[in-house]
Amino acid sequence: MKMTITGGAGFIGSNLCDYFVTEGMEVTCLDNLSTGFKHNIEHLLCRDNFRFLEGDIRDLDTCREVVAGSDVVLHEAALGSVPRSINDPINTNANNIDGFLNMLVASRDAGVKRFVYAASSSTYGDSAVLPKREHLIGRPLSPYAITKFVNELYANVFSSLYGIETIGLRYFNVFGRRQDPNGAYAAVIPLWVRALIDHRQPFINGDGSYSRDFTYVDNVVQANLLAATIPTELFHQRIEAYNSSLPEGSPRDTVFNVAYGGNTTLNQLFNCLRDNLAHFDPEIANIEALHRENRPGDIPHSQASIDKARQVLGYDPKFDALKGFEQACEWYWNNLK
Predict the structure, then answer these.
(1) pTM above 0.85, yes or no
(2) b or e along 154-191 (b: 16 or more beta carbons within 10 Å of the residue's beta carbon)?
(3) How far apart are CA 143 and CA 169, in angstroms?
(4) Is residue 188 within 8 Å of 266, Cβ to Cβ?
């Protein structure tokens, strides 16, 4: 199988590159290095079945070049972060919608068989229903959420009009090795781990009662593997059977939650990270968090139902949050120190 991975020098993308190159697939990696890093894929550059192209998904010609000859596209490239999108909606839109459409058009024209893309749990917006099920969404609460919802709409239309198979994976708070702890828009887990290792007090937004379905990156790799390789006939049989079980009028789409299905409050997260890191440095056990106001655009609680991914893709996540926190803390301790 020949595969294109966009955003392949980023956090999730580089983990995908690692896996598929190791499995012997021919991988072409595209990244503009705006949020990804060359050092994440440096060890792959000597491999015969890996090619890196520095380029931007906002350029259609670049997209055409990178998908040429590919059987499957894993589209991870995007400008993430809800706060970033609130501060800079134009750039978020250009990357996440214009760039997404470029990749769809290039993939369609190149005869790509399947287009798997990173969707987002932010699409659920103000829906208070728990656990989150794919056919029940609310109104988006940020420009970032709007862009990821538009991605799903475009993917569905391209499947209907042009016959390209599209599968969206709604990621829930992914964390793990290589997630960048630096910068104004760093995710909470690497941000807090970096602070604790440096003996600084992390900030918790709000009173710490907000909760998330934290998802270890290896679960995401499994979901992408399944989405990329499930036989077409089997996929259509299963998705039709699942959709027939939904209430009348529910959206019939090929979007799946990717999570563990758990629930961890920010206070619980802080305690877990502190306890894991204290095994390496006992002084960390004495550090307390500081609290500040909640961020605009944040939802109080997020927890996924993964029934659809289980039934259709065969998804079976191996890492719960606690096991993932342990793995992540060990990786950060060995690499940040």
Answers:
(1) yes
(2) bbbebbeeeebbbbbbbbbbbbbbbbbbeeebebbbbb
(3) 19
(4) yes
Classify 270 as helix, strand or coil. Answer: helix
Residue of 117, 124, 144, 315 marked catalytic: 144
Asked whether the beta carbons of 3 and 28 are under 8 A apart, the reply is yes
pLDDT in tens, the chain (337 residues): 899 999 999 999 999 999 999 999 999 999 999 999 999 999 999 999 999 999 999 999 999 999 999 999 999 999 988 999 999 999 999 999 999 999 999 999 999 999 999 999 999 999 999 999 999 999 999 999 999 999 999 999 999 999 999 999 999 999 999 999 997 778 999 999 999 999 999 999 999 999 999 999 999 999 999 999 999 999 999 999 999 999 998 888 999 999 999 999 999 999 999 999 999 999 999 999 999 998 776 788 999 999 999 999 999 999 999 999 999 999 999 998 7
Cα–Cα distance for residue pair 107/127, rounded to 1 Å: 33
Sequence-distant (≥ 6) Cβ neighbours of residue 308 within 8 angstroms? 133, 134, 242, 256, 257
Active site annotation includes 171: no
Q: Do residues 3 and 20 make contact, with C-beta atoms less than 8 angstroms apart?
A: yes
